[in-house]
Amino acid sequence: MIIREARKPHTATAPVKVTEPSEKPLTPKSATYLVLRREENRQDAEADQELLAQLQAQQSELATAITLTQDFAALVRQRQPEQLESWLERAAQSALKAFERFANGLREDYEAVKAGVTLPWSTGPVEGHINRLKMLKRQMFGRANID
Length: 147
Hints:
Blueprint: H1 28-36, H2 45-58, H3 60-77, H4 84-93, H5 97-108, H6 110-118, H7 127-140
Helix pairs in contact: 2-3, 3-4, 4-5
């Protein structure tokens, strides 16, 4: 003999009102943009500073990463090669393995990095042309297949 539970009659419930969140969630991409954005390009500087302070207060490692990142960005943007060595020391001695590896990689090619921070020239505008020329060369030799 099978005993079944008695079903409760379906009652109508009030529809749930769905609203858009007042703030967008902080994604890794938006957090990176928040950390690296220049002070003069911030639309709501006070809110951004408050959010950065909240991020830094969460973990000491995160605060260290934010500080090192902002210092390196300022070093490159303002062309301050005299601060490169001290930044490399701080990054290498931090407890963050990613910054330690990055600093070691920069040390391996120190002269080129120092020249990149010092000199005003950049190959950025021609990188697209170089990529296009390499692709044409590969096509000529039959190696530029989809696979």
